[in-house]
Amino acid sequence: MPAAHAPALVWFRDDLRLTDQPALRAALDSGRPLICLYLYDAGASEGRPLGGAVRWWLHHSLAAHSAELEKIGGRLDLLAGDHADLPAIAQALGAAAVYWTRRYGAAAIESDKAVKAALLEAGLEAQSFNGQLLREPWEVTTQAGAPMRVYSPFWRAHQALGDTGAPIPAPRKIQPADWPRKAPARVALDSLRLLPAKPDWAGGLRAEWTPGEAGAKARLKAFFKGGLAAYAQERDLPAKPSTSRLSPHLRFGEISPRSVLQATRHLEAETPALNKGATKFLAEIGWREFAFHLLFHNPQLATRNHQPRFDSFPWRTPDAATLRAWREGRTGYPIVDAGMRELWRTGFMHNRVRMIVASFLVKHLLVDWRVGEEWFWDTLCDADPANNPASWQWVAGSGADAAPYFRIFNPMIQGEKFDPEGDYVRAHVPELARVPKKFIHTPWLAPTEILAAAGVTLGATYPAPIVDHASARDRALAAFSTLT
């Protein structure tokens, strides 16, 4: 058995924070010196490699977390390898106990079960905690005890369970344990090669984001100051700074949903006029909870239609030029192109626009939703195994509580409704910057002299639409009507 002075190992993954960190708190409460470890496995334990934007964020999040630990006397140790190696690593470190935050994807669950069994067999204490969600996915059920399939009753049932408790304060001091000589050699962060090099495409990400717990707290504070009051009215307007943009921070666990919930409710209590915005914002946190609920109960969420009737859907195989036009934001539909370019430049896309570009791929082009999900997995900083596939299946109509198949977003109407001045398009499609707002979402309808004055030549400086909306809509409706 491990000696009384043996260290406790805190195994960090998607929970890179000090505040409201149950695994860290349990390790501290053990009274043992701590080893704080991140074991990089390139996403293998999640079932697929991490995307490029996620790897970029992870590099900076690890650097920030290391700095925060050092401020209170701790240390973040890095290793590279398979998560299955964790029990052997813990034994080499002489650890008495291992604490970690649970994950909910099928591959991750199986990996963690195997790790826990091996730790217990070796005589070590092994405990996992919920540090990623407000509630565990199995806690919210129908009256019959079954998983929930529709968001609204899910969120009502979730809320009916009562208070989720107060966030755990960050520790003020950590007693670090020495790293034994017999233990595997630690690696430097740069050796993980998480950052893009040739080419370095991350300039827009660097300009847009501050990964880390401090960045998450600053982002929430800025949202409370400048976005929450108008959130209910403006959350669908991509040109307005009215959304929280917390999703990448939540994805990496730099802030907990419980901290977000408590801070929002505290502010709402102080300022009742914020009730409408706060209620809507927390409902979006509820959608995140629902996505993980779906993932837990549907392990193949990213690869299999939630509704089996979609298995026979007549998807089209896109030619390389069509798929490239969508990925690069050159479809000829300005709101679609603005969203795809925002994604490539910043690793993020406004949620309303995500729905528009996803609908365009799935319904205008009849491309399998899994193709889009994979692209978002690689390019979104907030891509996680629950929200990314759940959202794509929602748009496709194959998911739980999905949009009806006949809801085919008209990109011109969507643009005119949610970007009425064209500011979002102009910010991300600069070649259209001088087009009057009357034609900003339909440049192909503009008179030749107006396009000439704006410096636009369709098919040259900006593409003509790659597909006719009316024809694409008819084709999509015909394809979806084949579902039984």
CATH superfamily of the largest domain: DNA Cyclobutane Dipyrimidine Photolyase, subunit A, domain 3
Order of helices and strands: EHEHEHEHEHHHHHHHHHHHHHHHH
* Major sheet details: 5 strands, parallel
What is the CA-CA span between the terminal residues? 60 Å
Q: Provide the helix percentage.
A: 40-55%
CATH class of the largest domain: Mainly Alpha
What is the name of the CATH topology of the largest domain?
A: DNA Cyclobutane Dipyrimidine Photolyase, subunit A, domain 3
Radius of gyration: 24 Å
Q: Kindly state the mean pLDDT as a whole number?
A: 96
Question: Reading side by side through the largest sheet, how are the strands ordered?
Answer: 3-2-1-4-5
Strand content: 5-15%
Query: Would you identify the regions where 5 or more consecutive residues have pLDDT less than 50?
Result: none
